[in-house]
Write a structure and sequence with these properties.
InterPro entries: HARBI1-like, HARBI1_dom. The structure is a single chain. The chain is of the alpha/beta class. It has 16 helices and five strands. The chain has three domains: 41 residues, no CATH class; 96 residues; 238 residues, no CATH class. Strand 2 and strand 3 form a beta hairpin. Helix 6 crosses helix 8 and helix 7 crosses helix 8. It starts with 5 loop residues before the first helix and ends with a helix.
Length: 393
């Protein structure tokens, strides 16, 4: 075996990342080899890591700096890593070392994925920052994306019982009986030229629709993604799984009592017993105006929800992939991350908001085709709100 001087040894050591335990293992191995007659002085500070070093990212940054970089606190990050680690029964994200380059750790996988979701950086840029190849970044993103989608049912849930509906309803202070605010927004995506006509929206950009319902804490309770951006909000909602189930099984499939609980939406939606919309037209009465004010005051929660969603996870402001299914998965994973952070008290400050909210109020309004029962319910709520206001004043 050729003799190995200090310089050559350092070059080899610089090609991979070693922890303190790994250094001890290597030195013990060298003692048993033919190289044991040579003396080496190992300077750990001179080593250049080949694989992501997790410890500096976790320990060297203050919590505020870590939050700005990865869009969540260190505590929330560790809890997310533990949650994903438990679901990774086959140790896909935490492979043991079997020789060659050291595999990226579980923490490393999640840090790279969070950076991908929090920025608009290219795979090359992310790979350069974390000292991995662009293909490794893509592989890591796809693997963590798979586990994030597995968490969807656990973190995006529509209320199912009276207690849950009552708790959500109490969070909406202005309008009674609300268990969710519904609206749509556009996720700009890259689309193949042959399909662009279907995905061009009113902004003259290609996008997909995100139809969502949120509670008073801006938690997503229902999301429906993937419909082409050229479709109107009402059409997207009517073709959602929720509406299909309501048509098939009736409103009680989601709402225990449509006379007591309902969603609220803007004028882009049709009036129903389980979806209350504002009064439309120029000749609305004083009572109807106050009804619209109360409804809009609570409905704005979904606008805040979209603002935090797009402001925190900037990848969803424009998803640069030709695969629409992949774009839907990325946007869905961002919804899961959004809920995970809120449930762990990791809120996103309004100071970080810097995007335009996608509102549909100024679109051509639909004809008010709500049924008689729905109109009676809305009138009854308007009467109650107006009487309460009169009694207070």
């Amino acid at each position: 075996m050729e003799s190995l001087n200090k310089k050559t040894f350092m070059i080899l050591m610089g090609e991979m990342f070693f922890s303190s335990e790994d250094i001890v293992h290597v030195l013990n191995h060298l003692k048993k080899s033919l190289l044991c007659s040579h003396k080496f002085v190992v300077n750990i500070k001179d080593m250049t890591p080949k694989i992501l070093m997790v410890e500096p990212w976790i320990c060297s940054y203050e919590n505020f700096q870590f939050f700005k970089l990865f869009r969540m606190s260190k505590k929330t990050f560790i809890e997310l890593a533990e949650k994903i680690g438990k679901s990774d029964e086959k140790k896909i994200l935490a492979k043991p070392y079997t020789g060659g380059h050291y595999p990226v750790s579980l923490y490393g996988h999640i840090l790279i994925f969070l950076w991908y979701m929090a920025t608009q950086d290219t795979l090359l840029s992310i790979g350069t920052r974390f000292k991995v190849s662009p293909t490794t970044v893509m592989s890591i993103t796809n693997k963590v994306l798979y586990f994030m989608l597995k968490l969807k049912s656990a973190y995006i849930k529509f209320p199912k019982n009276e207690a849950e509906m009552r708790d959500i309803s109490e969070g909406f202070k202005k309008y009674p009986g609300v268990i969710g605010a519904v609206d749509g927004t556009h996720i700009f995506v890259k689309v193949e030229k042959s399909q662009q006509d279907s995905y061009i929206d009113r902004y003259r950009r290609t996008s997909i629709n995100l139809m969502a319902i949120c509670d008073s804490n801006t938690l997503f309770t229902y999301v429906f993604l993937g419909y082409p951006g050229s479709a109107h909000d009402s059409r997207v909602f009517e073709n959602s799984i929720m509406c299909k189930n309501i048509e098939r099984h009736g409103p009680n499939f989601y709402f225990l009592d449509t006379q007591k609980y309902h969603l609220i939406g803007d004028s882009a939606f049709a009036l129903r017993t389980w979806l209350i919309t504002p009064y439309r037209g120029d000749n609305v009465t004083r009572k109807q105006k106050f009804h619209n004010y109360c409804l809009s005051s609570d409905r704005v929660k979904i606008e805040h929800c979209f603002g935090a969603y797009k402001g925190r996870w900037r990848r969803v402001q424009y998803i640069n992939t030709y695969n629409i299914c992949k774009a839907v998965e990325i946007a869905t994973a961002a919804c899961v991350l959004h809920n995970f952070c809120i449930l762990h008290k990791d809120t996103w400050s309004n100071d970080f908001f810097g995007i335009d909210l996608d509102r549909n109020i100024n679109q051509a309004e639909l004809e008010d085709r709500g049924n008689i029962e729905a109109k009676r319910k809305r009138n009854r709520i308007a009467d109650t709100l107006f009487l309460c206001r009169y009694n207070i004043e």
